[in-house]
Amino acid sequence: MQKPMFRSLIATAGPSLTLACQGANSHEPDRTAMSDVCGNRHLLSIGYDGSIERGAKAALVAAVENGSPIYVGWAFDSNSDGKDDIVHWHPAEFLSIYDEEIFTQTPRIEAQRPSNSPTNMNFREADTQWVGVIGTNGKLVGRSSDSSQAGERQVKSWWCKA
Questions:
Q1: Which residues are registered as beta bridge partners of 54?
Q2: I want to staple 42 with a disulfide (CB 3.0 to 4.6 A). Which of 11, 38, 80, 152 is the partner?
Q3: Which residues contact 36 (CB under 8 A, 6 or more apart)?
Q4: Do residues 21 and 32 make contact, with C-beta atoms less than 8 angstroms apart?
């Protein structure tokens, strides 16, 4: 068995990618058109099952190895209705290439929770930090500072040059 390749790289955050996750004729996010996200800066889209929906892992690896700043967007469907419940975007400042997959850590954040009445994002009750690792394998592994256990969930993701 061949030993897997492992590399870690730190990329510098580029300019905001806000416009890349907005609809073409709107100032509001259009999560139904996320396949067109990033325009010509798009490198790779991964589905919930880890399959490549658009782009190529080789393009992402080449961009990372060339030092290009990368942004990653990721979504999950917690109620399994086929719709993205929430989409997050952040600079992929710490990237790892392991075997044939690419991983990035999320920034360490103050944990938040969505609220539906009214639509809002609130901090959790306790002062809790959260961090995760997102991969081109379609998985997010996350952990809160109030738990020693990491949780895993399927996510879809978009990888773009900044």
A1: 45
A2: 38
A3: 24, 42
A4: no
